[in-house]
Design brief:
alpha/beta, 28% helix, elongated
Length: 265
């Protein structure tokens, strides 16, 4: 592995890491992964190909085991704190970044067609908060979700912050994006999935649900929840909570619901 020390923030080899604040995260051909735990998942899962790693000089010694999982040809750039901050545009206190190539977009139809005979799918509709998407992916990995499907109004799971909050699960759990919820409903219906919408006003207590072999659970955005026309096309589920309180955070609700649907091997 080639380890190179760079002292100039204008070095063209660092171009992928320039100005990676949240507003600049949606880049056409690459995304940024941050933190040692996330890079461990990146190099272990191998769903995505890293183009380079950028480390603070103080972090290099502690990254030996992580970098040993990476391809031998991966460039590793080591910089002092002033260079790291100048390149990134803010204080990167973790000091561990990777520029990673995006995979060609996978169609929801193709991903659904490749799922096993017994499968659990999570569907996100209108969830545009990075923290919630990251937390939901973390829960999906923890409870054996086979795939996550998102509509076009949900945020990109490969945003740096979403990946970080997911502790790398967004790099491990397969996902696909469709134009709208209707396309996702049609794809899952054609594949024989029973589809459920999680809502505070759901008709069925989730504790009374017997999970079918192929199940898809829909989650909607905070406040508004899932659109009425989506919920009208499937069984609605509720998580019982104390009287007088409105609802749970969507990420917390996903953990409870997925725990109920989880089938350990």
């Amino acid at each position: 592995m080639t380890i190179t020390t760079i002292d100039d923030p204008g070095d063209p080899r660092l171009a992928s890491y320039h100005d990676i604040r949240e507003r600049n995260l949606a880049r056409e051909n690459l995304f940024i992964a941050e933190g040692k735990v996330v890079l461990n998942v990146l190099f272990s899962a191998r769903r995505f190909e890293a183009q380079s790693v950028l480390l603070l000089e103080s972090r290099l010694a502690g990254m030996t085991e992580t970098l040993a999982k990476a391809p031998e040809t991966l460039p590793v750039f080591v910089v002092p704190p002033a260079v790291m901050d100048a390149v990134a545009g803010f204080n990167v206190h973790r000091g561990v970044l990777a520029a990673v190539g995006r995979r060609p977009p996978e169609s929801a139809d193709r991903l659904v067609a490749a799922l096993p005979r017994e499968a659990l799918v999570l569907v996100l509709v209108g969830i545009s908060n990075h923290d919630n998407v990251g937390s939901i992916f973390r829960n999906a990995a923890a409870f054996g979700v086979d795939a996550v499907l998102l509509d076009a109004t949900s945020c990109d799971p490969l945003y740096r912050k979403a990946i970080r909050v997911s502790v790398g699960a967004a790099l491990k759990v397969p996902f696909a994006v469709a134009d709208d919820a209707g396309a996702l409903i049609a794809a899952l219906d054609a594949a024989g999935f029973r589809q459920f919408a999680l809502s505070p006003g759901g008709r069925l207590d989730i504790r009374d649900l017997a999970r079918p072999p192929r199940a898809a659970l829909y989650l909607g955005t905070e406040g508004e929840g899932l659109p009425e026309d989506v919920m009208a096309r499937m069984t609605t589920l509720r998580i019982p909570i104390a009287p007088g309180f409105d609802s749970l955070n969507v990420a917390a609700a996903s953990a409870i619901a997925l725990h109920r649907l989880y089938r350990p091997d």
